[in-house]
Design goal:
The structure is a single chain. The chain has ten helices and seven strands. It has helices at 8-11, 18-46, 52-70, 79-86, 102-109, 128-137, 147-160, 187-195, 207-210, 239-254; strands spanning 73-76, 91-95, 115-121, 140-142, 165-169, 198-205, 221-227. By secondary structure, it is α/β, with parallel strands linked by helices. The radius of gyration is 18 Å and the shape is globular. Helix 7 (147-160) crosses helix 8 (187-195). Strand 3, helix 6 and strand 4 form a beta-alpha-beta unit. It starts with 7 loop residues before the first helix and ends with a helix. A seven-stranded mixed β-sheet has the order 1-7-6-2-5-3-4, with helices on both faces. The chain has one domain: 3-Layer(aba) Sandwich (Glycerol-3-phosphate (1)-acyltransferase).
Length: 256
């Protein structure tokens, strides 16, 4: 799918005419809560079914796609990059973080044949409903109060994952507060070194233009997602050197 050179203007150009957008938003208001409850309670009812995780993961992905469609948001990725992701194995996925739309965009655009999961704060597991859903989807609980415990948990989880499954990490740690990429934390590089996995960097463009920090209702427009070439840690370099090299690789694409 070709990308237009007019950049930011294209990102915020509405996908649908205003009447269509209003109809879609009305549908979202009417059925969105029921759909969310179905997705939330499905694990409680079906978690013991054989093959549940694969079925539920596809359900969540389809839900993200429908949400973006109802919001009149298009997510683009080049076909060759989708094909590369579909065949990607034994990796950790690293993504920049611009807005609350990032996770939905990633779920929508990454091919179904590429399995991935996320890390989440361990406090979410205090709720039975969330715990059942998160465990059913294969999310990894992380105790952020202890850096060493978090690293041990991440490393163990990645070691136990099948080669075709990747964990998604946001190296900035939180949504960027500037127009550029934020500083990177070393977690992804450390886990990659410990497990022998490569890193698949992904750069998300313009999601903050559609849903800026502090806003709750996204604009219609286009989000671009780019999958970069595989990044391999250098055992002869320091962690800081690998981290700086990874950030430079993503920055070059982000600022292009």
């Amino acid at each position: 799918m070709p990308f237009s050179p007019d950049g930011q203007d294209r990102a915020t150009r509405a996908i649908d005419p205003l009447p269509i957008r209003l109809i879609k938003r009305a549908i979202l208001v009417l059925v969105g809560l029921f759909y969310f409850l179905f997705v939330a309670f499905a694990p409680l009812l079906c978690v013991r079914r054989r093959g549940f995780r694969g079925w539920y993961w596809r359900l969540v992905k389809r839900s993200c796609s429908r949400l973006l469609w109802l919001l009149s948001i298009r997510v683009e990725m080049r076909p060759e990059e989708k094909n590369a992701l579909a065949a990607d194995t034994n990796s950790i996925i690293v993504v920049n973080h611009r807005s609350h739309l990032d996770g939905f965009s990633l779920m929508h655009v990454v091919p179904d044949t590429k399995w991935f999961t996320f890390a989440a704060k361990s406090e979410f597991w205090n709720s039975k409903l969330l715990r059942t859903g998160f465990d059913g989807a294969g999310l990894v609980p992380i105790n952020r109060d202890s850096g060493s415990t978090a690293m041990d948990t991440l490393t163990k989880a990645v070691r136990e994952m099948p080669a075709r499954c990747s964990i998604v990490l946001f190296p900035e740690g939180t949504r960027a507060k500037t127009e550029s990429l934020g500083d990177f934390k070393a977690g992804a590089v450390l886990v990659a070194r410990e497990t022998g996995r490569t890193i698949t960097p992904i750069v998300i463009h313009d999601s903050d233009s559609l849903l800026p920090r502090g806003k709750h209702l996204p604009r219609s427009g286009t989000i671009r997602v780019e999958a970069l070439p595989t990044f391999t840690c250098d055992p002869t370099a320091s962690v800081d050197e690998d981290l700086a090299r990874l950030r430079r690789q993503m920055m070059a694409v982000f600022e292009r």
